[in-house]
Amino acid sequence: MNQYLELGFLGLAVGTVGTLIGAGGGFVLVPVLLIMYPDYGPETITSISLAAVFFNATSGSVAYARMKRIDYKSGLLFAAATIPGAILGALSTNLIPRTIFNVGFGVLMVAAGIYLFFCREKTTKPSAAEAERHCVRTVTEKNGTTHTFSYDLGLGIKWSLLVGYLSSLLGIGGGIIHVPILVRLLNFPVHVATATSHFVLAIMALTGTIVHIATGTFSGSAVDRTLALAVGVTVGAQLGAKLSDRIHGKWIIRSLAAALALAGLRILMLAR
Questions:
Q1: Residues 18, 55 contacting (CB under 8 angstroms)
Q2: Alpha-carbon distance 223 to 160, whole Å?
Q3: Distance CA 8, CA 222 (A)
Q4: CB 51 within 8 A of CB 218
Q5: Do 85 and 163 touch, CB atoms closer than 8 A?
Q6: CA quadruple 20, 157, 167, 253: dihedral positive or negative?
Q7: pLDDT digits (tens, 9 = 90+) for 74-115
Q8: Rounded to two decimals, what is the model's pTM?
Q9: Cα angle vertex 207, ends 205, 212, to 5°?
Q10: Structure confidence at residue 254 (pLDDT)
Q11: How high is the pLDDT of residue 79?
Q12: How far is residue 204's CA from residue 214's CA, in Å, rounded to a whole number?
């Protein structure tokens, strides 16, 4: 019983942080699960994490939908692109030894954290030729704030395919990779990026979870532990969405960078 309470509180923290920065929380959950369950293989850890990310992202998406921050058209296009990658990633997880999984996951986290922390926002506008290929979007929040931005749709779809694969492979949900891409490469405003990323995550994580169910990876104790986490992440997602209203986009990105680096270092320590 104590273990399920611990998982519930863990889910609350993961859901809050994950929704605040649009990352789904898998990047926090996977390292903790690796510590809590050293005998579990990568495929079991990722199946639990992805299912929890689904509940978190769904709850967070509902909250962000009420705030009118989600770019649904872009989100559906990106989600469609992630699905093939998510299926392939879920099928690939059981082929990777635990040690290699830990090292790869850790290095990716640290590198992404360093990049986000030191990389400045783009200030240059696209050239006329680039602008012709861009998709122009306008999102008006519930509070009246209007965001108009443009991005290269082809580039967004290509990156989303890769995000789908890596997120499903590592069980991290993908938002921790997708949000930086949306902000740095595709010119999304930070708050729109976090909300849209969460919408994409819900679809992508559901796809990966269905594959894990079909292959028999997600069953037994994995289901029990996920249900305990689901209660926490569902509540935490609502809290994280409310907190996002009070935090400047710059600090959301810096928080994301710090969280990435710390999680990566912890995983590399486990791989020693």
A1: no
A2: 28
A3: 14
A4: yes
A5: yes
A6: negative
A7: 999 999 998 888 888 878 877 777 677 778 777 877 887 787
A8: 0.78
A9: 90
A10: 74
A11: 92
A12: 16
